[in-house]
Amino acid sequence: MTAHRASLTNPHPVHDTTTSSDIASSTSVPPAEPLDPPHIDDPRAVAPQDARELSRALLARLTDLEEGTAEYSYVRATLIELNISLVKYAARRFHSHSEPMDDILQVGTIGLIKAIDRFEPDRGLEFTTFAMPTVIGEIKRHFRDTTWAVHVPRRLQELRLSLARAADEMEQRLDRAPTVAELAAQLEVSEEEVIDGLTASNGYTAGSLDMQLEDDSPDSTLACRLGFDDTRLARVEDLHALKPLIGALPDRDRTIISMRFVEELTQAQIGRQLGISQMQVSRLLSRALATLRTGLLHDAG
């Protein structure tokens, strides 16, 4: 038994002379060169799952590229094409608005581009999770800032939406339209704020003055119902023309005209204040008015 064990023992042991530097040199791998982005003929034809994987790789590649280079522009444009379906999905939420769908898609695409530029792959988020709120927020901002016929403060725009939701809910519950006081209690705001919000809702759209009010009458437009001759405009013109003529009158004539037509004093009261008779006041007033009348007719001729 002892002899058998001895035969397994190597009488000349071999010592390992390999150093740690030899191991490091034999196992070291040269740094990998960044891979060129794949060429995609039609990014919109890529399946959703493949588009998600490609987007993940391209977003990581985009962070290593220098902005302004041809490769950066290609990767960025490819990401937009691959994820345009997110914009279409978000735009469908706003199909009930009067805004053309093409405009909504354009605004949503701007939001997608902002999401691509701001996305940080190192945070571990899925791009769709980050991009969707950005796209929807851009579309909402478009409706808030550009689609109102009359600009109203953002506070009233948001209050209008809250009032619309509360009014629909309360109308179903009460089986009638809610009052201003009930809406104020529901939203915990003052009645004045409710009135302001309801008034602001009228500024979202504006009717054309050329809008036909009756189908059987081509001349029945809103402008015909609202328009009328304002006689006060002619009075403004007359007053404007009278100003230099009155300024050219003697001081006493101007004083008499002011006391008669501004202070609305009688001729007797004017005479007592000026120390002259009523007859003199009448004669001076008639002469001044005749002078003004002649000047107006001369200007009109």
Q: Which labels suit this protein?
A:
301 residues, mainly alpha, Four Helix Bundle (Hemerythrin (Met), subunit A), Arc Repressor Mutant, subunit A, 3 domains, disordered N terminus
Number of domains: 3
Note the total helix count.
15
Overall pLDDT confidence:
80
Separation of termini? 148 Å
Structural class: mainly alpha
The third-level CATH topology of the largest domain is Four Helix Bundle (Hemerythrin (Met), subunit A)
Just name the CATH architecture of the largest domain. Answer: Up-down Bundle
Instruction: Give the helix level as a range of percent.
Output: 55-70%
Number of strands: 0
Radius of gyration: 43 Å
- Beta-strand content bin: under 5%
Secondary-structure element order, N to C: HHHHHHHHHHHHHHH
Label the overall shape. elongated
State the major sheet: none
Q: Runs with pLDDT <50, length 5+?
A: 1-35
**What's the CATH class label of the largest domain?**
Mainly Alpha
Protein described:
The chain is mainly α and 301 residues long. The chain has 3 domains: 43-146, Up-down Bundle (Four Helix Bundle (Hemerythrin (Met), subunit A)); 150-227, Winged helix-like DNA-binding domain superfamily/Winged helix DNA-binding domain (Arc Repressor Mutant, subunit A, Orthogonal Bundle), CATH 1.10.10; 231-300, Orthogonal Bundle (Arc Repressor Mutant, subunit A). It has 15 helices and no strands. The protein has helices at 2-7, 20-27, 48-62, 70-82, 84-91, 101-118, 127-146, 154-174, 180-187, 191-201, 222-226, 231-247, 251-261, 267-274, 278-300. Helix 9 (180-187) crosses helix 10 (191-201), helix 12 packs across helix 15 and helix 14 crosses helix 15. The longest helix is centred in the C-terminal third of the chain and has 23 residues, at 278-300. It is elongated and about 105 Å long. The N and C termini lie far apart (148 Å). 14% of the residues are buried.
